[in-house]
Amino acid sequence: MVILIVLIVLLALCFDFTNGFHDTSNAIATSVSTRALSPRVAVFMAGGMNLIGALTFTGVAKTIGGSIADPLTIQHGMLVVLAAIIAAIVWNLFTWMMGIPSSSSHALIGGLSGAVVGAVGFHAIHYKGFISIIEALVISPIVALLLGYIIMWIFRLLFGSFSPHRVNRPFRSLQIASAAVQAFMHGTNDAQKTMGIITFALIAGGFQSTMNIPFWVKLLCAVAMGAGTATGGWRIIKTVGSKIIKIEPINGFASDLTSSAIIFTFTLLKLPVSSTHVISSAVMGTGAAKRFNQVHWGVAGRIVIAWVITIPISGILAVLLVRLFLLF
User: Fold this and answer.
1) Its principal location (predicted)?
2) Contact status, residue 110 vs residue 316, Cβ threshold 8 Å
């Protein structure tokens, strides 16, 4: 039992590391693409801010750990968590290699749900909690798209008469601050998901009885995600920073402002969101407000397809894994 929980913690930290270079790269993509920050400075700054953000809140962790299923009543709960984490890691690595900004949040939630179904059955899912999580994941990018459009439209009204050179200089400086805030907000939401799943395993294994997140879990998850961020996710940065639209400092700042506000709002609501979805949608929204036909909607469509298929694919993979584990 102790060996299994150690293995789960190690794999969860590996997931957090992949989450760091996979998802947090979104947070700095706009500032790197506009050259507000050099790639090296951007990833280290994001890593530090991500670590601080991860240590600040725990509400989302408790939602992940207790809203999808009850760890006290799940048979083979530790094997469920093991299968969920492996499924999420596999999907993260696959989409990272393909340069697709898919959602680590979706992968983890899909993996956990699928593993619960594979081990116990559909009746073990808390559908009210599960649906509230899915609603947050679906609604947040839509709001990001609309809010990004509105903020960029306001910026165009305020600064449309100025020359691009005059506008870009101050907004490039503002992007340094917005990238830092963005990375902090990512830490407040995304790192908590791994904290929640480790705590789920601790309860399922009888190591604790409540959803209170131990400090050592918060610290290890924060460090793992910060280290992953500092490693950098250059493929994802390239997709978000240049392949959706040609980003300039003004719409880069608008995108950062939009996504930071939305991620933090959902963190306060103790609901998980996909930073990938939110940031990519904000970029699309600001691009559409500037010039609709400049958005590379084909690339955006491929990103949306990845969003849609992540939960079912990671869920199916987790079902197969947990069934395999139970054979032994």
Assistant:
1) membrane
2) no
